[in-house]
């Protein structure tokens, strides 16, 4: 997991904050302290974003996300993300 960067703080139930395109985990910097008061919060930088390295071959964000949760031995997590939509 040395190629991915993540922010991990707090304890308790686990939301995982996933950033939008062209951003990194800092997009959640206002929410993380509030949730970390009674949750364990993980906010990763996707490959090629923030402090994570660029991909050296094909990859899927979902596979990276699952591998990170296994690496951290988190158990169940609730993914939280922001998406832009025209609807």
What does this structure look like?
By secondary structure, the protein is α+β, with helices and mostly antiparallel strands. It has one domain (5-81): 3-Layer(aba) Sandwich (Rossmann fold). It is built from 2 helices and 4 strands, in the order E-E-H-E-H-E. It has helices spanning 31-36, 61-72; strands spanning 5-10, 15-18, 40-45, 78-81. The strands form 2 sheets. The chain has a two-stranded antiparallel ribbon. A two-stranded parallel ribbon has the order 2-4. The longest helix is centred in the last third of the chain and has 12 residues, at 61-72. It is globular. The N and C termini lie far apart (36 Å).
Query: How much is the radius of gyration in Å?
Result: 13 Å
Q: What is the H/E order?
A: EEHEHE
Question: Which bin fits the share of residues in helices?
Answer: 10-25%
Q: What's the main sheet like?
A: 2 strands, antiparallel
Q: Quick one: CATH superfamily? A: Alpha/Beta hydrolase fold, catalytic domain
Q: What is the rounded distance between the termini? A: 36 Å
Rough outline = globular
Beta percentage is 15-25%
CATH class: Alpha Beta
Under the CATH scheme, which architecture would be assigned?
3-Layer(aba) Sandwich
InterPro entries: AB_hydrolase_1 (IPR000073), AB_hydrolase_fold (IPR029058)
Pfam families: Abhydrolase_1 (PF00561)
Protein name: Alpha/beta fold hydrolase
GO molecular function, one term: hydrolase activity
């Amino acid at each position: 997991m040395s190629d991915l960067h993540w922010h991990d703080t707090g304890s308790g139930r686990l939301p995982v904050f996933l950033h939008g395109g062209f951003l990194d985990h800092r997009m959640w910097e206002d929410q993380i302290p509030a949730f970390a008061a009674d949750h364990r919060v993980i906010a990763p930088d996707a490959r090629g974003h923030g402090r994570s390295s660029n991909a050296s071959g094909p990859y899927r964000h979902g596979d990276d996300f699952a591998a990170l949760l296994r690496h951290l031995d988190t158990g169940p997590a609730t993914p939280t993300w922001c998406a832009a939509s025209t609807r």
